[in-house]
Amino acid sequence: MHDHDRGLAFDLSRLIGRRGMLGLFGGAMLVGAVGCSEPEQNTSTQATGQPANGQSSSSQEEIPDETAGPYPGDGSNGPNALTQSGVVRQDIRSSFGSASGTAQGVPLVVELNIINAGAPYAGAAVYLWHCDREGRYSLYSEGITEENYLRGVQEATPAGLIRFTTIFPGAYTGRWPHIHFEVYGNLTEATTASEPAKTTQLAFPQESCTEVYTNPGYEQSATNLAASSLETDNVFSDGYTTQLATITGDPTNGYTARLDVHV
Fold first, then answer.
1. Which domains are assigned to the chain?
2. What are the respective helix, strand and coil percentages of the chain, to the nearest 5?
3. Which of 64, 135, 173, 195 has its CA 20 to 30 A from that of 223?
C-alpha cells in the first residue's frame, strides 16, 4: 500500500507520531487475547531489495519504520511493560516482577549495532519483544496474559552494541519469523514509554528457521513457515535487506543473530 493511499489517519500519524495519534483518537482498542495470529500491515516507506545470498547487508541505508503490531506492550495498545521495575535486563527468557513463567525454546542471542549518522549510537536504548515458540505474545495471548517474558530493554554500550539473551521465536499464521524492536534516544526515554526514534522489525533467514523448527515445540512453526515467505510477508515483502539478520550457531549450542541498525 502506498503512503498517498492511506488516508487521514495515516497522514496524521506521520505528523504527530504514533502515541500522539492514538491519544487524538481516544487510544487504541486493546486486541483480545489471541493464540497465533498477528494481523500487521506493512508501514515501510523504503523498498530496500532482497539479498541474493540470504545474509544481512552491510548497507548504510536507514532501517525502515515498521508497524509495532497489536501486541507491543509499550502502552500504545493496552499493557505497558516499559514502566515496570525489572524491564531493563539482558536475559528476557523469564518474566519479571510478580510473574514467574519462562519461555522455552532454542537459545538465541540477539546483537544489534545501533548506528546514527555513521557513528555508534552510544547511550541509545532498545525495547525488544517477540512471540514464544508457540507463536504467542506475553501480556496478550490466551494463557499468558499474566506473563511478560520475551520483553526487555537494554542500553547501548559506547560502541553502540545492544545484546539480548532469548529464545528463537516461532512462526505463526500470516507472518514470517521476526522480532520487534523500538530504538530510543536514551534509557530514560525507553523506560518512560516516550515516543521512540525508530520502530522496526528484524527478519530471520529461511535456512536458520527451517533448522530450528525441527526441534520439539516448534512443530506448528514448521508448518506455518512452509506456508509463508519473506517475499509475501505483509511487512517484509517490499524489501528486507536492512532487516535480515546474519545467523550463526546450531540448535544444540544456540544461535546468535546480528544486525547493523542504522537509525
1. 1-30 (no CATH), 33-262 (2.60.130.10)
2. 15, 25, 60
3. 64
Query: Beta strands 254-262 and 107-116: pairing type?
Result: parallel
Q: Please name the residue that has the C-alpha cell 528486507.
A: 240
Burial class (CB in 10 A: 0-12, 13-18, 19+), 68: buried
DSSP calls for 201-234: EEE--HHHHHHHTTSTT-HHHHHHHHT--TTT-T
CA torsion angle 222 224 228 229 (round to 10): -40
The rounded distance, in Å, linking the Cα atoms of 144 and 256 is: 26
- Residue that has been written with the C-alpha cell 500470516 in this structure: 174
